[in-house]
Amino acid sequence: MAGPKRTNSGARDAFTLIDIVRVVGGLLFLNAFFSWWFTSTSTWGYNGKWINTQYLKHRLTNNYVNLTIDELALYNGSDMSLPIYIGVNGYVYDVTASRGIYGPKGSYSKLSGKDASRLYVTGCFMNPEEYTYDLRGLKEEEAKQELSEWQQFFEEHPKYWLAGYVQRPDPVGEPPAPCEHIKFPGRRTKNAGN
Ligand code: HEM
Ligand SMILES: *[C@@H]1O[C@H](CO)[C@@H](O)[C@H](O)[C@H]1NC(C)=O
Ligand SMILES: *[C@@H]1O[C@H](CO)[C@@H](O)[C@H](O)[C@H]1NC(C)=O
């Protein structure tokens, strides 16, 4: 009755670390399995920055870049080993997740690797001079409003994040000539009457 068998069952009663690992591992596996079954992804369809290793690394190290205009130009998506950055109002956002939009073949590739703040206000995409942070000649209120909305867009975007800052010397020479502004069609319902 007593003897080896008893000690054996005694050992079974103890809930060991191995058991915890087994249970947690099993639950994780089941979670991934059902997620795959229902959504064809292992994360229930979530694809945002919280499962992006680059973002997690940034959060852990709390590392912010501080780039010159020339340095920022390297991050235009041409070098696959570097992230893609865009500058807005002196802030640098990591938009690598949308290589299809900001990479060399993307519809908005001309915005990457620069601080084209002026363009976010005017929408004058055809004019190469507009791809600058020089806001001289624009209506101050309009520029402030548009830029803060764009900043908000990039900051709150599920896949993008604030990566740091860009150093911007005061603009010199003639500012770009005035152009007819184009309104961004999205996010404008609350000001629809303006
Ligand atoms: C001030 C003017 C404008 C600015 C600054 C602007 C900027 C942008 C930016 C930054 C994106 C990418 C958003 C993201 O990362 O998801 C975008 C997307 C888009 N914009 Fe514009 N845009 C402007 C005007 C327009 C106009 C007038 C149209 C259409 C006639 C347009 C059509 C689109 C479309 C279709 C997308 C989606 C592109 C894609 O997902 O590949 N935009 N815009
Ligand atoms: C970025 O670096 C420049 C030059 O070293 C410095 O003057 C500036 O304060 C820095 N900006 C930020 C936001 O750290
Ligand atoms: C991106 O920047 C690099 C280095 O400045 C440049 O050689 C390349 O032509 C740029 N690519 C695009 C698509 O503008």
UniProtKB/TrEMBL annotation:
Keywords: Membrane, Transmembrane, Transmembrane helix. Signal peptide: none annotated. Pfam families: Cyt-b5 (PF00173). InterPro entries: Cyt_B5-like_heme/steroid-bd, Cyt_B5-like_heme/steroid_sf, MAPR/NEUFC/NENF-like. Residues 184-194 have a biased composition (Basic residues). Residues 67-167 form the Cytochrome b5 heme-binding domain. Gene3D superfamilies: Cytochrome b5-like heme/steroid binding domain. The chain crosses the membrane at residues 20-38. SUPFAM superfamilies: Cytochrome b5-like heme/steroid binding domain. One of its GO terms (cellular component) is membrane. Residues 173-194 are annotated as: Disordered. Belongs to the cytochrome b5 family. MAPR subfamily. This is Putative steroid binding protein 2.
